[in-house]
Specification:
The chain is α/β, with parallel strands linked by helices. The chain contains 32 helices and 21 strands. It folds into four domains: 160 residues, no CATH class; 213 residues, no CATH class; 208 residues, Protein tyrosine phosphatase superfamily (Protein-Tyrosine Phosphatase, Chain A); 161 residues, Protein-Tyrosine Phosphatase, Chain A (Alpha-Beta Complex). Helix 15 links the parallel strand 7 and strand 8.
Length: 854
């Protein structure tokens, strides 16, 4: 008892110090011995509570002010004494623990009485806050550029060690759209549907329920890698992509001020775009790291990518793209393929010039949002629009901006290729009538379907993946049906009688189902709480009773049974009309998981772990669950099983054993299964890879580890067989390491599993970048899909977690599309090129991820 009390007190003190350390790191680490105003680094209470929430730390405003005051009066020690005290690279938690010990030096931590419990607590919290410190440690590395190489190496290793990965326990509320009103306040919640994709919907299309996990980049790349990539021939470096727009000898020119503008018609635009799509893209080594963004003031980005090689900072000459710009900027109507607005790449003022889009600070290998503007700098630009005067004026300004860019490069001793500006002289109706294949949105603001749209393609894939299916007699799981059209796929099997929508605003009210069964209500739209909303141990017994009663009445309605005698020795029932019931949510796989699993356990009499597997394997349902769902369901399992109609003839001992069934794999699971991309390929994270029991139960007998290695015992390795494990080493998620050269053996390994009728888990650390890239490459190869379509295919099947192949991986996949088409003899020539260009793809990905950005 004394140990427990002492541990609780110690834990409280440690929480205080950890919170204080967060503020200290905010205030003292960035300046590095410079005189600055500390108040500029002080976070607000509202901002900080969001961070505390993710670590389950509860704090009041008064406590916040008290901690902040004590933090401001504390002298933070220099980083060198903290980091360099580590003799060698350590796990994340150990390094952060050292930082805590050195920075606070509290008596309780110096005491010999500190116990294992406290150390373990520090290690756990160290993992949580490690990601907050990595920008500061990297900044400190830059201050030591002139010091010994050994010091730099040690700091790089330390930086690599603390690049932790943090995924939120629940998606942020602004990252998706859920029902904010009661489930029956409108006909049906707006949802994903095949009909609403192609027509204007009465409700706005909701944002899918997803979140962006943090992806670690790995160490700063070595200046002299052990195995440098093959350099392209010197002659190739000076050649740009061929284009029928350059030289512009076949186009009429006109002079506007000091600039020369060329005229082009609809036929010329269509031909230029088709020709460009059939030209091979430059090698990734020729355009990276320039595409990442290398602002002269961004020392972190430059130190990571180019270090002292200044030639990598120059604008590459090997690119010659085509940028389509609509004068006026209204892309909701009359939009051509890949068209952008002027304000996406131009800065208007006393003189018009290209925007400086490279980030001035911070570090990122996923700057998709800057790609259209960077691509415009190395493109011939075609301006079109409805007002000829507006088109001409914009073309003149663009041409002047191009001239400024050329002059700036000449002044820096780096000559840039000549890029020109064109004016489209044809009306938009010519494109609609003669070249509909490059019309994205017509003149009446209707999406044509001729040009792939990422948002719509993702929804098509989600509709196909989450189509409603029957999990038990008359009970279905699926997405929210379309409230406008009766032709939604969910209605092909017949109209549903009762819809139960699972949402954040839903409540547990089994009385509503009972009233329907007894004929006292004609409601057909009901609600239920979303998965992850009921969190043990805070839930009340009334909630457990409500879940059980909800399952009972769903079963009664689905089977047409009405209990009559509740007080007699022998219960009697009456037959009523069977109801077809749909348990649904917006995406069809998140909010409905708790109720779906609870009912499936109750109706089938399976243990919770077995129901988890059967719903996925036997019923072919993809679903996403939260850790609290695992805790809640395993806690109420005895009640669900003891009342299950399928176990009425079983003994109490048998039911008790079922309820207590808790295999090792479910103890190690956070609720979510690895994502089933195809029947023979799963995409997951390092946690999934470290759960071999779960993998076996899912029929996965091969593991492909990309850049990360699972921590298996020797017994597990021998049991699986070394031939069933492949590890791709020395590929970090740093925007520098190539992955294309590993495609061949990775895909051969996956194919071997398919031929042996087994599944392969492809994983990295988070399961969103390196491993997702491999899965996309496999989908492109086997399904003959373009990179954009394969990207949406895999993205939809990763469920709540958004895949994030970084810029270089995405570019390599676009090159992979070329290679696959060349192998099939389908690349080069009319209608035989890329479906979308690099700038278009990057812009679409940035727009898709924007709602989820924190």
């Amino acid at each position: 008892m004394n140990f427990v009390i002492r541990s609780i007190i110690n834990l409280g003190l440690i929480s205080y110090y950890i919170i204080s350390f967060y503020f200290i790191s905010f205030i003292y680490t960035l300046p590095f011995n410079q005189s600055v105003d500390k108040s500029s680094f002080i976070p607000s209470f509202n901002q900080s509570t969001k961070i505390f929430k993710y670590s389950n730390i509860h704090i009041t405003s008064s406590q916040f002010n008290s901690i902040l005051t004590s933090s401001l009066s504390f002298k933070f020690p220099p980083y060198s004494s903290l980091i360099l005290s580590s003799p060698s690279p350590s796990p994340n938690s150990l390094i952060i623990t050292q930082l805590l010990l050195h920075s606070f030096n509290p008596p309780i931590l110096q005491s010999s009485k500190i116990n294992t419990f406290l150390k373990q607590t520090l290690f756990i919290v160290g993992e949580k806050i490690a990601v907050w410190l990595h920008p500061y440690i990297l900044s400190y590395m830059l201050k030591l550029q002139q010091e010994s190489q050994s010091t730099i190496t040690r700091l790089q290793a330390c930086f690599n060690s603390i690049m932790a990965t943090i995924a939120l326990p629940r998606p942020i509320s602004t990252g998706h759209t859920r029902s904010s009103s009661p489930p029956h306040s409108h006909p049906l919640t707006p949802t994903l549907s095949l009909d609403s994709i192609n027509t204007s919907a009465a409700f706005p299309i909701p944002i899918p329920n997803k979140h962006l996990p943090v992806c670690p980049t790995g160490p700063v790349p070595s200046e002299k890698p052990d195995t440098p990539p093959n350099s392209p021939p010197a002659k190739e470096l000076s050649l740009s992509q061929p284009s029928i727009l350059y030289p512009p000898v076949n186009y009429k020119s006109r002079c506007l001020d000091t600039s020369i503008i060329y005229e082009i018609d609809a036929a010329g635009v269509a031909a230029a775009l088709e020709h460009l799509a059939a030209q091979p893209l430059p090698d990734p080594s020729q355009v990276f790291p320039w595409f990442h963004g290398l602002h002269p003031c961004n020392h972190i980005q430059q130190a990571f990518f180019i270090q002292r090689r200044r030639t990598l900072r120059r604008t590459p000459k090997c690119i010659r793209g085509i940028t389509i710009v609509k004068a006026g900027g209204d892309l909701t109507c009359s939009r051509l393929k890949g068209a952008i607005t002027p304000d996406e790449f131009l800065q208007f003022g006393t003189k018009t010039e290209f925007q400086e889009v490279d980030p001035k600070e911070g570090f990122s290998v996923r700057n998709f949002q800057i790609q259209p503007a960077k691509s415009a700098m190395v493109s011939d630009i075609i301006v079109y629009g409805e007002d000829p005067l507006m088109v001409e004026e914009l073309a003149r300004e663009i041409a002047a901006a191009q001239q400024l860019v050329r002059e700036a490069h000449v002044n820096q001793g780096h000559e840039l290729s000549q890029y020109n500006t064109f004016i489209c002289t044809s009306p938009f109706s010519d494109f609609e009538q003669k070249y509909p294949q490059i019309v994205s949105v017509d003149s009446r603001s209707r999406w044509t379907g001729k040009v792939m749209d990422f948002f719509h393609q993702e929804r098509l894939e989600m509709c196909a993946m989450t189509k409603a299916s029957e999990i038990d007699h008359n009970v279905w799981l699926g997405p929210t049906p379309d409230g406008i059209s009766d032709t939604h796929p969910s209605f092909l099997e017949g109209q549903f009688d009762i819809l139960i929508e699972c949402s954040d605003s839903g409540q547990i009210k089994p009385i509503n189902l009972q009233e329907i069964a007894e004929g006292r209500s004609d409601k057909w739209q009901l609600g239920f709480p979303s998965s992850g909303m009921i969190q043990p141990p805070s839930w009340a017994h009334e909630q457990a009773d409500g879940i059980l009663e909800t399952c009972k009445w769903i079963y009664h309605l689905a089977h047409g049974i009405l209990p009559e005698d509740k007080d007699g020795d022998t219960p009697t029932t009456a037959k009523i009309k069977e109801r077809k019931i749909l348990i649904h949510c917006t995406d069809g796989y998140t909010e409905s998981t708790l109720l779906g699993l609870a009912y499936f356990t109750y109706a089938t009499g399976l243990s919770v772990p077995q129901a988890w597997l059967d719903l996925h394997i036997s019923k072919k349902r993809n679903f996403f669950a939260y850790p609290q769902d695992v805790s809640l369901l395993t806690t109420i399992a005895p009640r669900l099983l003891s009342e299950s109609p399928a176990l009425q003839d079983k003994s109490l001992m048998h039911i008790t054993e079922l309820a207590r069934e808790e295999p090792r794999w479910i103890k190690s699971m956070d609720g979510s299964l690895p994502s089933r991309v195809t029947d023979y390929m799963y995409l997951g994270n390092l946690g999934h890879a470290n759960n071999p029991d779960l993998l076996r139960r899912l029929g996965i007998t091969q593991v492909l580890s990309v850049g990360e290695t699972a921590s298996w015992s020797n017994w597990e390795m021998d049991h699986w067989g070394k031939d069933n494990i492949m590890v791709i080493q020395r590929v970090q998620d740093n925007g520098v390491d190539p992955l294309t050269e590993e495609f061949g053996r990775c895909l051969d390994f996956i194919e071997r599993g398919r031929l042996n009728n087994t599944a392969t888990l492809v994983h990295c650390r988070v399961g969103v970048s390196r491993s997702a890239t491999i899965c996309i490459a496999e989908v492109m190869r086997t399904m003959h899909l373009s990179f954009p379509r394969a990207y949406c295919f895999v993205r939809a099947r990763r469920l709540n977690v958004i895949i994030q192949p970084h810029l270089r991986f995405s570019y390599e996949l676009l090159k992979w599309e070329e290679k696959l088409k060349m192998a099939q003899g389908k690349f080069g020539g009319k209608g035989r090129g890329r479906e979308l260009e690099w700038a278009d793809i990057a812009r679409e990905i940035a727009e898709m991820n924007r709602p989820y950005a924190r």
